[in-house]
Write a structure and sequence with these properties.
Strand content: 5-15%
Number of strands: 5
CATH topology of the largest domain: Rossmann fold
Number of domains: 2
Radius of gyration: 20 Å
CATH superfamily of the largest domain: Response regulator
Mean pLDDT: 87
CATH architecture of the largest domain: 3-Layer(aba) Sandwich
CATH class of the largest domain: Alpha Beta
Number of helices: 10
Shape: elongated
Helix content: 40-55%
Structural class: alpha/beta
Largest sheet: 5 strands, parallel
Low-confidence stretches: 212-218
Length: 218
Amino acid sequence: MTPAPSRIRLLLVDDHPLVREGMTAVIGRQPDMSVVGEAATGPDALAAFRRLRPDVTLMDLRLPGLSGAEVTATICREFPGSRVLVLTTYSGDEQIYQAMRAGALGYLLKDMYLDELLAAIRAVHAGQRHVPAVVAGRLAERFAGTELTNRERDVLHLMAEGRDNGGIARTLGLTRGTVKGYVHNILEKLGAADRTQALTLAIRRGIVHLDSSSPHLP
């Protein structure tokens, strides 16, 4: 008698209980998949992965404690060959880039159809990349521009907090002239006409978030 094929063991990482409950119900109906664990925070996700060693991890990006990209990078560093599929509402090119750079094999938006989710899980389990056309297009937009330096990102985050050039200069220990130069570079790289447009573009692309601060700031 031929033994039944083993199921794809999944770890669900999302800070919304209803999302995890819905995903568990959907996956539980698939004959080739099973949910072996759940996590609601970044640290809990790492602990669960280390304990369970799932075949595929469905990873949200915005998590308490550690971001999904940080968790993915740690998992892929500690366990080379791990298969992570990002499942998120965030569609900015910077967020996509950071997740793929961290080692994710796929990136899905939560408004996708169920069939696409199941196909993505199976593809990632097989070691294949799964990046829908709309996600690939946004990722291509990022590489079409010039990347901001860490210091330019620091300045941009302080701009998002409402600081003027003088306030930014005092915070970073720079001169006003140096800050003015950074602001000019930021506008040019983002293709913005002024500071307001630069911030609008940066938020849309996921470069900055209004509820977060730059990890590079002293």
